[in-house]
Write a structure and sequence with these properties.
Blueprint: E1 13-15, E2 21-23, E3 32-37, H1 44-55, H2 57-62, E4 65-71, H3 75-85, E5 90-93, H4 100-104, E6 108-109, E7 114-115, E8 117-122, E9 128-134, H5 142-152
Parallel strand pairs: 3-4, 4-5
Antiparallel strand pairs: 1-2, 3-8, 6-7, 8-9
């Protein structure tokens, strides 16, 4: 499935690293959301990308944005990953049904059993405003989605 810019972002509810349910729709009317799908907790590129988000979290918060990082790892693994690297944003588990949300967003990689590196910027009304979809080995450029977020803030 491919999501088109300007379409409603599919809602979901997933558990964060603390076992709490987080729904995309809970941010509607309040915050823009940056969904960051990543393949594997504890892997090199994923760690680098999420540490870059951690180190720039204040910029996203000042723009009124919430970062939601999503992997197919179990929430217990995500908890260890978040604790190890000090992630203060939600790391959501798309573990079961395996990759269901990743599939809905069109970023699930069947061969790897994990999402590709998809980033989706969703405005306060729940509309998809920007996206980039990279393969597993291709790191994203943080400045690109910061610029997209600045356009809708």
């Amino acid at each position: 499935m491919t999501l088109d810019i300007g379409s409603a972002a599919p809602d979901f509810t997933l558990k964060n690293q603390h076992g709490e349910d987080v729904s995309l729709s809970s941010f509607r009317g309040d915050k823009n959301v940056v969904l960051v799908f990543f393949p594997f907790a504890f892997s090199g590129i994923c760690t680098g990308e999420l540490c870059e988000l951690r180190d720039n979290l204040g910029d996203f918060e000042s723009d009124g944005a919430e970062i939601l990082a999503i992997s197919c790892d179990h929430f217990f693994s995500n908890r260890a990953f978040a604790d190890r690297d000090g992630y203060k944003f939600s790391i959501l588990s798309d573990f079961w049904p395996h990759g269901e949300v990743s599939r809905v967003y069109g970023t699930f990689n069947e061969g790897a059993g994990a999402p590709n590196r998809g980033t989706y910027v969703i405005d306060r009304e729940g509309i998809l405003r920007w996206k980039i979809e990279n393969g597993i080995p291709d790191a994203r450029d943080l400045s690109a989605y910061r610029a997209a977020l600045a356009e809708i803030s």
